[in-house]
């Protein structure tokens, strides 16, 4: 019983690392650019397809294709921010919500047209490998994905806290107007934030590929998790999103283990609704804002 | 700007005659089907627009009420033999009751997070109806017994009759919108949509107004659910709580003109016609093409004309009026 419990927690933490990459991207964009990117999940999907095609066409290992998917999606993010998002920034919610929502619909349905709804998998030498610790079972591919995800999250944290650009991004997220008065160029900061967020989503896609199938709707699973984790971890808070994502992973895994295989989504929604009902400002909320 | 009242009534009379004549003139059941879809989604759009358009509470979860309406009337009909005409009203009431706790939760959030919360509520309802096989047939759904011609059970032999039913629904929806638009409530809604804090500061009871408009909007959406189920003779959680219903409700209003009386109708005409044309050119074999085109239209509207097609038409009209020489 205890072993099952520990095993479920481990499974949850491992997948929670991937959720964290997606949530950190959502919360970074929300914090800095002040919009919710409904299309974040679709960029995970694109990251997966990039890795899938590199693996099947050129035999590139999905983990290696990280060096392709992240820069490609970073540039995509900068371009999307520059040509689309920048035009709808303002006090009005409607254009922002429905622009990124339209982007999500567009990418999803384009991939449905071009890649069909088939599930695509990549089999690597380590896809079936696992570490056995006592009675516990730790799949190598998931462990690597978790480790890289944590390393990337750490890198982002270091970037946000030590570089001038990172500090400018944090300043813009705390108070955009004052940051602009201090000479921070908002367009540059927004573009980097959007690019970085999409690069993280791309990384999540590549890391998933050795043990998860790519299909057009795959992003929806992750973006839903991310939205809940981002509310739970207080909007715009990177560390909060990371911790909440790991919690979401564990909660989902416990739900699957003890309630039933198809209860994952119910657990997610239950957590969202409970958060909304009792702690709408998130677990880490200090002062209302 | 306002056309003289007499002229307006003349236009209404002409439009009314044309709409009533349509099924008599057009015999192709494919074409009638498109008309029914246009009227149905216009009606859903009108219901969404009351809350999403005027008060800018951008819900993407209206499938929740569409599904509740559909399931309430179907359960009453299949299990207890009660007419869907009664079931339709009952479904509306169930939807209104459901909108109270859902609104209580979702209205705690504003902007994009309100939208996400509404998506979640519709998904939760779908999961509930998938899980509970005892009272709602689970994932397989059920077919509605075909009684042939039974107007009292909302079953008709010709598509024309369905057309008139949904035309009636749309007229009711537009009439309610018109009444609200002209009332204090309409102004309160627009005020909330412009700036909720400012509206509250000048004494608008925003929580109450939002709750009331959510009640009306969910009631109307549920009526559409009952109609749709009766029309296709089938119900399952995936169609009743389909995310695409939520999407289309919002899309038609935004594309046509958010927060305007005729916006949802104009938007639906454009989107459904596009969709029908795509289908006849490409067949239904290419998955995703319809929503690809919808999303491109949506992006174009948001980037270039956030006021929608109505906004484009109004601008053109104003330019035309200004160009005319001033009359004494």
Describe the structure.
Chain A is mainly alpha-helical and 289 residues long. Chain A has eleven helices and two strands; from the N terminus they run ααααββααααααα. Chain A has helices spanning 2-33, 40-58, 66-83, 93-115, 140-162, 164-174, 176-181, 186-208, 218-232, 238-258, 264-278; strands at residues 130-133, 136-139. In chain A, strands 1-2 form a two-stranded antiparallel ribbon. In chain A, α10 (238-258) crosses α11. The mean pLDDT of chain A is 87. Chain B is globular, with a radius of gyration of 20 Å. Chain B has helices at residues 5-25, 29-54, 63-80, 84-106, 112-131, 133-136, 159-182, 184-194, 196-201, 206-232, 237-240, 243-256, 263-282, 289-304, 308-323, and strands at residues 142-143, 234-235. Chain B is 76% helix and 1% strand. Chain B is mainly alpha-helical. Chain B is built from 15 helices and two strands. Classes of the chains: A mainly alpha (289), B mainly alpha (328). The A-B interface holds A 35-36, 38, 84, 87-88, 92-99, 101-103, 105-106, 108-113, 116-117, 216, 224, 227, 231, 235, 265-266, 269, 272-273, 276-277, 280 and B 56, 58, 60, 105-106, 108-113, 115-117, 120-121, 123-124, 127, 247, 250, 254, 258, 286-292, 294-296, 298-299, 302-303, 306.
